[in-house]
Amino acid sequence: MKILVGTNNENKLRQFRRIFNNLNFESELLSLKDAGIKDDIKEDGNTLIDNAKKKAKYYAEKSNLPTLADDTGLFIDALNGEPGVHAKRWHAGTEKDRYMMILERMRGEDKRSCRYIGALAFYNPENKEFWTYEKSIEGKIAYEPKDVGGFGYDAIFISLDFNKYYSELTDEEKDKILHRTLGAKELVKYLKES
User: Fold this and answer.
1) Which is catalytic among the residues 71, 97, 171, 175?
2) Keywords for this entry (predicted)?
3) What mean pLDDT, rounded, does the chain reach?
4) How do the domains of the chain map onto residue ranges?
5) For residue 125, is the peptide bond before it cis, meaning its omega torsion is within 30 degrees of 0?
6) CATH code that applies to domain 2-193
7) 28-30 and 113-124 as β-strands: parallel, antiparallel, unpaired?
8) CA-closest candidate to residue 16, choices 178, 130, 192, 180
9) Model confidence over 18-27: pLDDT tens digits?
10) 126 dihedral zone (left: phi>0; alpha: psi -120 to 50; beta)
11) pLDDT at 7 > cutoff 80
């Protein structure tokens, strides 16, 4: 089965390909580039699910391929849930600029609790049906970054499951908690049943 992955983020695409390969599900994951799509759509939904559904439907209708898309947000309690659903658009600049801005804003703050929330949406343009999934990972914001791997806010997010920086987690550790992995397992079940 050919599935288009509705993202321009190479890290996410690599992750999805590795995950689906490990699930032994006969599928070929295509990138937007493979499908000849150069568009980037505005993620202006009120929720992560809204954004994931918007991307999945848009790219599915453009390519006429079943499409999987996701959206992830970092919700920090001391910042009233910021950056939240706007994780990528919350502050201009690079990923590092964004996480350094968080550390700056949280200087002197002892309440470090936060969570990554990830949403997946799959849209089939043939039957016009959506499938969605959402998962939360509890964590805390570090006092100093540790940029040794990962992407986004991984350099400042400490996973409570492992008491390690998210950027330090192995693929095997991530697969136990990551919404992309757990959601992909559920999606494969859904696809096999339908």
Assistant:
1) 71
2) Hydrolase
3) 94
4) 2-193
5) no
6) 3.90.950.10
7) unpaired
8) 180
9) 999 999 889 9
10) alpha
11) yes
